[in-house]
Amino acid sequence: MAKDRVRIGLSRIFGWKVMDVSRYGKTAFLIAAAAVVAFFLYMSNRLIEDLTAQERDRMEIWADATKEIVNLSSTDDDGDSGVDIGFLLSIIERNTTIPVLLTDDDGNIQQFRNFTLPETQDDAFGFGDLTEANQAFLHAKLEKLSESPNVIHITIAPGFNQHLYYEDSTLLKRLSYYPYLQLLIMLTFVGAVYFAVLSTKKAEQNKVWVGLSKETAHQLGTPISSLMAWMELLPEMGVDRDTVAEMNKDVQRLGTIASRFSKIGSKPQMELYDANDVVEKAYAYMSTRVSPRIKFSSAFCKEQLPVMACAPLFEWVMENLIKNAVDAMDGNGSITVTTGLERGNAIIDVADTGKGIPRKNHKAVFYPGFTTKKRGWGLGLTLAKRIIEEYHRGKIYVKWSMPGQGTTFRIEIPLEN
């Protein structure tokens, strides 16, 4: 009952309910962020579309004014028509932002306005007065604009047409880049907030891990000390010395376990070991303490695998992997432990013929609280991942797994030169 209460408490901290809330919270946050980004992009695009339409309207007014001026000039109107030519000219003069080209049906440029020419000219009153470089520049602009929708066809008279080509204003060009800049900024902000929240959550979980581990080590200390004292008294009480020796091994094992928990949260002392020796020690201990129906086999690398390691913690990882493999086979199957050398890393594989892990759970098995056992806490692989990655600068992952066929976990630790 006590264990169940502890397990339930841990599940509330690390378990599936919290993981589900966390997962839904992340999803809700990302959906909300995407909605905000989409809203601002929509509004920005609407603004650009409105400005584009306004510039189109201005160019149509400019085209109408041009048509009226040409008609007045061609009819030699004496000014009694009622048309204010000064107003028409003012419409054309007020366009100081939109680059404009006016051509005839043959593509000859009649007028141009608001283009920044490559060569400065103060004495140019028409296209013919321009230098060759400036004329070539405007012809290139005309060729480019002729492929765009920014053109207004002006019918001056039957058979007499002009064509008004125009570019987007500088303001509109700048605004057209704004949605992309806005998207980049918002994605950067959302990403920063997202990773900040994850980092904060991870830091909080780490505090819980450290507190739980150190409290466990503290609670184990007193009964272990008492057991050690009893071990010294048992031979005097007539207990068989071989039996006392075996019991003493388990008491010492409890001391090792307490020592492991006490190391969580503080930087462990790393020493140079041959990975083969550390793995073989854990393998030898576990192979004699499980059901005889479990067949153990090993293949250790013939070369030395020098790594910087904390032996007690590394052995803990190996014992966790072997223990999980035993649980996955329901007391019947085989476990194979191998070591080797690959790409400058010492590699350790723990393979079993158990239930296997679905591909979707290959990463989830390392999450706090993930377990497929009815009475499991889901902490072993999480601790293993922390020990290997944070203390040994290595990696641990599911190398291969197939439901109903088995699983292979792999550990990679960088070799020391």
Question: Would you give an account of this structure?
Answer:
- The strands form 3 sheets. A 5-stranded mixed beta sheet has the order 6-8-9-11-10. It has a 4-stranded antiparallel beta sheet with strand order 2-1-4-3, with helices on both faces. Strands 5-7 form a two-stranded antiparallel sheet.
- The chain has 417 residues and is of the alpha+beta class.
- Helix 2 (16-75) runs antiparallel to helix 3 (85-93), helix 5 runs antiparallel to helix 6 and helix 8 (311-328) runs antiparallel to helix 9 (380-391).
- Strand 8 and strand 9 form a beta hairpin.
- The protein has helices at 2-14, 16-75, 85-93, 132-145, 170-233, 241-263, 275-287, 311-328, 380-391; strands at residues 100-104, 109-113, 151-157, 160-166, 271-274, 294-299, 306-309, 333-342, 345-352, 395-402, 406-414.
- It has 9 helices and 11 strands.
Overall geometric form: rod-shaped
Helices, by number, come to 9
Note the run of SSEs as H and E: HHHEEHEEHHEHEEHEEHEE
* Main pleated sheet: 5 strands, mixed
Mean pLDDT: 81
Q: What class would the helix/strand composition place it in?
A: alpha+beta
Strand content: 15-25%
Distance between the termini: 51 Å
Measured as a percent range, the helix fraction is: 40-55%
Topology, number of strands: 11
